[in-house]
Amino acid sequence: MTRQSISTTGAPAAIGPYSQAISTEGFVFCSGQLGLDPATGELPDGVEAQADRSLRNLAAVLDAAGLTLADVVKTTVFLVDMGDFAAVNAVYGSHMPDPPPARSTVAVAALPKGGRVEIEAIARRRG
User: Fold this and answer.
1) Is the peptide bond before 44 cis (omega within 30 degrees of 0)?
2) Is 95 exposed, middle or buried (0-12, 13-18, 19+ CB in 10 A)?
3) Do the Cβ atoms of 73 and 124 come closer than 8 Å?
């Protein structure tokens, strides 16, 4: 099995010993993306803005792999507060094409840098 690291400046750089994504066997496994602005490294105010930025960061990583959100087959959404579910769901729905990918949403005690939402994805190359 060969693995290729995917990296882009269109999303925040990894803040630890991991890749933004790994491509292998026709799949792309994207690390979780916080809502950090890649230019400033800062989180925007509000969970909706963080969810939007997280999805745009995820789209940038996928683009670096030659894919789009339409190629995503599974996502996992991590929320610090399940009370944010509806707000994040609305933002998520505005980014994901039909049919949307399979998804899990879990509550976590905390996220890096004080983020309120993080989203990871698995995508598959077509053909």
Assistant:
1) no
2) middle
3) yes
For 71, list phi and psi in degrees, rounded to 5. -90, -5
Instruction: Determine contact, residues 61/20, Cβ cutoff 8 Å.
Output: yes
Q: How confident is the prediction along the chain (127 residues), in pLDDT tens digits per residue?
A: 899 999 999 999 998 899 999 999 999 999 999 999 999 999 999 999 999 999 999 999 999 999 999 999 999 999 999 999 999 999 999 999 999 999 999 999 999 999 999 999 999 998 6
Q: What is the largest CA-CA distance in the chain?
A: 42
Distance in angstroms (rounded) separating the CA atoms of residues 46 and 14: 22
Cα separation of 68 and 50, whole Å?
20
- Are the CB atoms for 104 and 69 separated by under 8 Å? no
Q: Which two tokens stand for residue 86?
A: 């509806």
Provide the whole-model pTM: 0.96
